[in-house]
């Protein structure tokens, strides 16, 4: 239950964070900008889930309502009612076409995040959190050396998000 509360707090905080347009942004999730003609999501170029606080609540419900990760590493929402929502299509596209799933890609993302200048864009923040959720799942399902590798990746993603939150907090004007 603690990690779910942490995720909700991370999403809420990021929804209120100022994005500083001065920084040149590196591409953290290049697959978000590629059009996948073979998928049913070809109309969704660079989908974003959290555009309002209601969207953040809905994303939390998706995570709380349990996810199913199949043998092909396809992520789906177990709750049929939630899965039928329009935002569930965006969630599916992000989880199955955008976030990295291999340990190599996740380490590459962590390395880019560790040198990222400025505050993450909302879509990069949410994708990093979803990658962290996926990494936590893989950590729980792994054993031995693989478990250590996945756990290290999880910690690196958490550090990157923590740094982003601290940086965005320091960027806010004091009233």
Automatic annotation (TrEMBL):
Cleavable signal peptide: 1-17
Keywords of this entry: Signal
Alphabetized Pfam families for the sequence: FAM180
Source organism superkingdom: Eukaryota
UniProt cross-references to InterPro entries, sorted A to Z: FAM180 (IPR029170)
PANTHER family: PROTEIN FAM180A, PROTEIN FAM180A-RELATED
Name of this protein: Family with sequence similarity 180 member A
Organism: Sphenodon punctatus (Tuatara)
